[in-house]
Amino acid sequence: MGALPAPAVTFFSSRGPSKASPGILKPDITGPGMNILAAWAPSESHTEFSDGGVGLSFFVESGTSMSTPHLNGIAALIKSLHPDWSPAAIKSSIMTTSDAVDRTGVPLKDEQYRLATFYAMGAGYVNPAPAFDPA
């Protein structure tokens, strides 16, 4: 069935506001970040070997930054449906249709099961379906 609460803000997720730029609130949105894997192929000039001396065909990374391809894919799909929308309109669509509740309808929580603040989750957890037609 899956873990509960889900989704939740992980302990390693960045929190806002930025100390360098406190007037800029981050994060904007929360996306899938726990147990999300991203693979990338090494370049010709950069070869890694496993402990057994065998060349690796790809690398694997995990973490909240790995949600970036998911969010970029959602933005690309929205752009394909609305080619006249600006990047700001696409961002607005994603943020204003996000969810501040988990899949059971309870407000999003952080890793300590406390209510997640907007400094932890931004506008909320991305919800692609309504973002395609936010009106």
TrEMBL record:
Domain of life according to the entry: Eukaryota
Organism: Triticum turgidum subsp. durum
PROSITE patterns cross-referenced by the UniProt entry: SUBTILASE (PS51892)
Peptidase S8/S53 domain ranges (all copies): 7-104
InterPro entries cross-referenced by the UniProt entry: Peptidase_S8/S53_dom, Peptidase_S8/S53_dom_sf, SBT
GO biological process, one term: proteolysis
Gene Ontology molecular functions: serine-type endopeptidase activity
One of the Pfam families matching this protein, by short name: Peptidase_S8
Keywords, in A-Z order: Signal
Official protein name in the record: Peptidase S8/S53 domain-containing protein
Presence of keyword Nucleotide-binding: no
Family membership: Belongs to the peptidase S8 family.
